[in-house]
Amino acid sequence: MNFIDQRWLAYLAHFHADRDYYACHDYLEEWWFELGNPQNHLLMAFIQLAVALYHYRADNINGARILLDKATLIFEMNKDLITDYGLDEEALFTKLNELKSNVKHHRPFVDVNLKFSDQLLEKHLHEFCLNQDLDLYASSDMNNLHLIHKHKFKHR
Asked: Sorting pLDDT into bands at 50, 70 and 90, what band is 150?
């Protein structure tokens, strides 16, 4: 990955540190809009993955299932580009299949970590988290209702 967009780093930081999947959505949506919001762009798959995890953690199984299916389809359409975002393509699809199985069988939510193929990106992520005082690879705070149900508090 030659150029690392700060919104991508913010997405990855919130995805892997404070597990604020709602914020993940916001960071990539802004970037996606700048690209003209193409429906099958890889950024849309990452947005849908974050929102699926948001729903899954909040026990909205149907919402999680629908978004995981949509995200998987877009990831498949763009699989040649996944490594351009610094991620391991094979590990991503393995994780998606595991998530879909967990949702289908109503297994308890477990945090997701994506596997990096780009060591420099991972180094930048560590630095970004350090600068933001975020604990990389922390577990979701399941007692933080503001995090779990953030959409209910967003515009209040």
From this structure: confident
